[in-house]
From TrEMBL, chain A:
This is Vacuolar fusion protein MON1 homolog. Residues 47-74 are annotated as: Disordered. Residues 87-206 form the FUZ/MON1/HPS1 first Longin domain. The lineage of its organism: Eukaryota, Metazoa, Ecdysozoa, Arthropoda, Hexapoda. Plays an important role in membrane trafficking through the secretory apparatus. Residues 247-345 form the FUZ/MON1/HPS1 second Longin domain. Residues 52-68 have a biased composition (Polar residues). GO terms for cellular component: Mon1-Ccz1 complex. Signal peptide: none annotated. Pfam families: Fuz_longin_1, Fuz_longin_2, Fuz_longin_3. Residues 374-472 form the FUZ/MON1/HPS1 third Longin domain. One of its GO terms (biological process) is endosome to lysosome transport via multivesicular body sorting pathway. Belongs to the MON1/SAND family.
From TrEMBL, chain B:
Keywords: GTP-binding, Hydrolase, Lipoprotein, Magnesium, Metal-binding, Nucleotide-binding, Prenylation, Protein transport, Transport. It is an enzyme of class 3 (hydrolase). SUPFAM superfamilies: P-loop containing nucleoside triphosphate hydrolases (SSF52540). The keyword Ubl conjugation does not apply. It catalyses: GTP + H2O = GDP + phosphate + H(+). Its cofactor is Mg(2+). This is small monomeric GTPase.
Length: 483, 266
C-alpha cells in the first residue's frame, strides 16, 4: 500500500469545517452575533449542544406485509405511479399540517399525514424507523417539524436521516430556525406553505441533487481542478477586492457544482452541508443568471438563528462561474456590486477568467483515461479538508448514475455502520467489484471491473493514491485565504 | 504566479452613504463593464476598430444618460422575471424560472425621444418571506410596475394589498403602472381586461395587458415608464404634459381597437 506522511489532499489550513458525514445535525453555532460585535473577543466554543439528546433508540418493527399506506392508494391521482415511486419525502408540522410532499399534492395526502402523525405520537415521538419488506420508513423529529422518508432504495436509516436533515436545513435556510420556532409558538396550526412558496422546488432539486451527487453521502465538497498558483491568484484577487468591506463573512466562487475558491472571515469556517445548500440554491435558481441578486440566506450550520445577506452574480457573460458574497450587513448591495466588478476586472486582466473557462469546459478525465484500465470509477475523500475527488463517469454508469451512487452509499454504510464499522472491504459481484477503505486521513471507494483479482485491485489502489498525491494541489483547495 | 497588480489597488470601497455618490459609482461600473466585455475573454483580444469606436461614442452618450429606478412587484408566479428577461434579452422560456430569490438587479438603456434613459430594474421575489428585503428598495424607486396574472384571480385580488404596501413604503410621486400579464392565455383567462382597467382607474394608475410569451406590450410597458419618468424629470408642469395613459392608448390603438374598454355610460 502507498505510504504517505500526509494523506493526499491534506492541507495545513482547513478551508472547510471537517465533519463526519453521519454526524447529527444538532450542533449549530451562533456565529452571527459574534461577527456583529466585531471587536468582542470571541470564544472558541461556538458550538452549543442542542437540547435534544440523541439517545432515542431505534425502534424497529418488522411488519410482514406492506403497510396500510399502500392500501389507500385510490385516494391519490395516478395512484399506482405514486406508490411505485422509489422514495417519498414528507414534511408535516407537529400539529399535523401538511407542508411538503415530494410527489403529489400534499393537501390530498391529509389522510396519510394523519396516519404518520398517529404512529409517531403513539410511540411517544421515539420512533425512528420502520422496516417493512423492502420499504424503510424513517421519521425525524425536528421541532417544530416532523420529516418522514419512505424508501425502497435500500439506503440505511442513517443515510435517509441525513437526507431528511438536509430537507430540514433547506427550510431553515429560507426562514431561520428562530423564526420557524416563533411562528409555531404563536400559532401551532399555522400553514407554513404560505411562507415557503417556491421552496418546494428547491427541496425537489435538493433531493434529486443528493441522489445524484456523492458529495452528500460523503459530506464533502469537490473542487474545480485548477493549478494551485491559479487558485491562489483568484483567491487573492477576491481577498484584495473585499478586504475593505466590513463584515463580509464568506466569498464563494463556484462553477459546475465545483468549488473554485473560498475566502472567509478570520476564525469562521463554512460547513460543507451549508455549502451544499448554496450549490443547490445556485443550481436550482435560473433567474440568478439574468441579474445580480441580493437575498437573505440562513446557513443553518453556521448560525441557524439569523440571516446572512448574499450578493449573487455570475462573473460575466463569457464566464459562467457564480460568485457569492455573504455579509451580515443588510444594505450593502452597491458596495458588493462594486467589489464584484473589480474582481471581474482583475480576473480578466490576470487571464484567470480564461483559465476558469478552460477548466469548466474541460471534461474531467475518466479513470481509464488516466491509466487505470480496470478501475471504472472512484471517490477519494480527504477527511481533514472535507474535500473529495471523483473522475468522470464511464460506462456502464454513464446512463445510470443513480445506480453507481447507490453502490457507493452501500459501501459507505458498511464503513460507517454504527454497530460494526469496517475499515477495509473488497466485495465482488457479477456486475462489479467494490473496494472500500477507511483510514484516519482519507476514505477511498473504488469500483472495479468484476473480474479483477484482489492483488491487482490493491496494486491499483496503491498506484491511484500516488496519482492523487501528485495532483493534490490541482484537485483540492489547499490554501485558505481570509479577509 | 500571482497575477494581481498591486499598483491597481485603490480605496474605492469606503462605504458610500450618499446615494448620489453610489449612483455615480454604479454608473461608472456599468460603463466599465460595457467596455471590458469581450466575446472571448482571451488575452490579447482586440475588438475591431469600428466596435471600439462604437464604444467610444457610447461613453460620450452616457454622459447625458438619465438613470431611473424601476421595481417589478406582484405575487409570486405572475411572471415578473419572465417579463424582464423578455424585455432584456427578447427571449421567453416557459417554466424556466423558478422563484426569484430576494431581489435581482438589471440595467437596460432605452431611447426616449433621442435621449438615452438608463432603467435600473429591480426584479423582486413575490414571496411573503422576502418582503422585508424588498421593502427597503421601494423608497428609492421612481417607478413601479405592478403585475398580476390574468389567469390567476387571486393574484389580481391581491393588487389592492400591493397598492397599500406601495403607499406605505414608496415615495408619493412614484409612477405606477398596473400590468395584467400572461394575456396570451386564451381560454384560461380568469380576470377580464375591464376589471383591470377599472381598478387602474380607481387608483389613477396606468394599465395595460402584457404577455412575456408573445411579447405583447412588453417593450411598450418599459418605454412608457421611461417616457413618463423623462417627462417628469424635464419638469413638464403644464397641463398638456405627457400623459402615460394617453400614450399607451395611442400606442395600442392600432392593434387593439377591439379590446378597448366600452364607454361606461350609454
Amino acid at each position: 500500500m502507498a505510504d504517505f506522511d500526509v494523506e493526499p489532499g491534506a492541507a495545513r489550513d482547513n478551508v472547510l469545517v471537517a465533519s463526519e458525514s453521519f454526524e447529527n445535525f444538532e450542533q449549530m453555532s451562533s456565529s452571527l452575533e459574534e461577527i456583529m460585535s466585531v471587536n468582542a473577543i470571541s470564544t472558541a466554543a461556538e458550538i452549543e449542544d442542542d437540547t435534544t439528546t440523541n439517545t432515542q433508540e431505534d425502534i424497529t418493527h418488522n411488519q410482514e406485509n406492506g403497510s396500510e399506506i399502500n392500501e389507500k392508494q385510490e385516494d391519490v391521482e395516478n395512484s399506482l405511479d405514486w406508490t411505485n415511486k422509489r422514495k417519498h419525502i414528507f414534511v408535516i408540522s407537529t400539529a399535523g399540517k401538511p407542508i411538503y410532499s415530494r410527489y403529489g399534492n400534499e393537501d390530498k395526502l391529509a389522510w396519510l399525514f394523519g396516519v404518520m402523525l398517529g404512529l409517531f405520537r403513539y410511540s411517544r415521538d421515539s420512533i425512528k424507523s420502520i422496516h417493512a419488506g423492502d420499504t424503510t420508513y424513517v421519521f425525524l423529529s425536528k421541532k417544530p417539524l416532523i420529516l418522514v422518508a419512505v424508501s425502497k432504495t435500500g439506503e440505511c436509516v442513517n443515510q435517509l436521516t441525513l437526507q431528511l436533515n438536509y430537507v430540514f436545513n433547506q427550510i431553515v435556510s429560507m426562514l431561520t430556525l428562530k423564526r420557524l420556532t416563533k411562528i409555531y409558538d404563536e400559532k401551532a396550526n399555522y400553514d407554513l406553505r404560505r411562507l415557503l412558496t417556491g421552496v418546494d422546488r428547491l427541496i425537489d432539486h435538493l433531493l434529486d441533487f443528493s441522489e445524484n451527487e456523492p458529495a452528500f453521502t460523503l459530506g464533502a465538497i469537490q473542487c474545480l481542478p485548477l493549478a494551485i498558483s491559479e487558485r491562489d491568484s483568484i483567491s487573492k484577487i477576491i481577498k484584495d477586492a473585499c478586504s475593505k468591506i466590513r463584515n463580509l463573512v464568506f466569498a464563494i466562487l463556484l462553477g459546475n457544482n465545483r468549488l473554485i475558491s473560498l475566502v472567509q472571515m478570520k476564525k469562521y469556517h463554512l460547513h460543507p452541508a451549508d455549502l451544499h445548500l448554496i450549490f443547490n440554491l445556485v443550481q436550482a435558481t435560473e433567474s440568478l443568471k439574468y441579474s445580480e441578486s441580493w437575498t437573505p440566506l440562513c446557513l443553518p450550520r453556521f448560525d441557524n438563528s439569523g440571516y446572512l445577506y448574499a450578493h449573487v452574480s455570475y462573473l460575466a457573460d463569457d464566464c459562467q462561474a457564480c460568485l457569492l458574497l455573504l455579509t451580515v450587513e443588510k444594505d450593502v448591495f452597491f458596495p458588493l456590486s462594486e467589489a464584484k466588478q473589480k474582481i471581474v476586472e482583475k480576473l480578466r486582466m490576470g487571464n484567470n477568467l480564461e483559465h476558469i473557462n478552460t477548466s469548466l469546459a474541460a471534461l474531467e478525465e475518466s479513470a481509464l483515461a488516466t491509466g487505470f484500465p480496470e478501475l471504472r470509477h472512484y471517490l477519494y475523500k480527504c477527511k481533514s479538508t472535507v474535500q473529495f475527488y471523483q473522475p468522470a463517469l464511464c460506462p456502464p454508469y454513464t446512463k445510470n448514475k443513480v445506480r453507481l451512487i447507490e453502490l457507493y452509499k452501500r459501501a459507505h454504510q458498511k464503513m460507517h455502520c454504527p454497530t460494526r464499522p469496517l475499515k477495509l472491504s473488497f466485495e465482488r459481484s457479477s456486475d462489479e467489484a467494490v473496494f472500500s477503505w477507511d483510514t484516519k486521513g482519507f476514505e477511498l471507494y473504488a469500483v472495479f471491473e468484476p473480474l479483477i483479482d484482489t492483488a491487482s485491485a490493491i496494486n491499483c489502489v496503491s498506484k491511484l493514491l500516488n496519482w492523487i498525491k501528485k495532483r493534490e494541489d490541482k484537485l483540492f483547495h489547499l490554501n485558505a485565504y481570509t479577509f | 504566479m500571482t497575477a494581481t497588480d498591486d499598483s491597481m489597488d485603490d480605496d474605492v470601497f469606503e462605504t458610500q452613504e450618499d446615494t448620489d455618490n453610489k449612483l455615480k459609482l454604479l454608473e461608472n461600473s456599468i460603463d466599465r463593464k460595457a467596455d471590458t466585455r469581450s466575446p472571448t475573454g482571451y488575452r490579447g483580444y482586440k475588438p475591431p476598430t469600428e466596435v471600439l469606436n462604437l464604444c467610444k461614442t457610447n461613453v460620450l452618450d452616457d454622459v447625458q444618460i438619465v438613470i431611473h429606478k424601476t421595481i417589478l412587484l406582484g405575487d409570486s408566479g405572475v411572471g415578473k422575471t419572465s417579463l424582464l428577461v423578455k424585455f432584456d434579452t427578447g427571449k421567453f422560456e416557459s417554466g424556466k424560472f423558478s422563484a426569484t430569490v430576494g431581489i435581482g438587479f438589471t440595467t437596460k438603456v432605452v431611447e426616449v425621444d433621442d435621449t438615452k434613459v438608463k432603467l435600473q430594474i429591480w426584479d423582486t421575489a413575490g414571496q411573503e418571506r422576502f418582503r422585508s428585503v424588498t421593502h427597503a428598495y421601494y423608497r428609492d424607486a421612481h417607478a413601479l410596475l405592478l403585475l398580476y396574472d390574468v389567469t390567476n384571480k387571486h393574484s389580481f385580488d391581491n393588487i389592492r394589498a400591493w397598492l397599500g404596501e406601495i403607499s406605505d413604503y414608496a415615495q408619493d410621486d412614484v409612477a405606477i403602472m398596473l400590468l395584467g400579464n400572461k394575456a396570451d392565455c386564451g381560454t384560461e383567462r380568469a380576470v377580464r381586461r375591464e376589471l383591470g382597467e377599472r381598478l387602474a382607474k380607481e387608483y389613477n394608475v396606468a394599465f395595460m395587458e402584457t404577455s412575456a410569451k408573445s411579447g405583447q406590450n412588453v417593450e411598450l410597458a418599459f418605454h412608457a415608464v421611461a417616457k413618463e419618468l423623462k417627462c417628469r424629470r424635464d419638469g413638464h408642469k403644464d397641463p398638456n404634459r405627457f400623459n402615460v395613459q394617453d400614450y399607451i392608448r395611442e400606442q395600442t390603438q392600432d392593434n387593439s381597437a377591439v379590446q378597448q374598454c366600452p364607454p361606461c355610460s350609454y
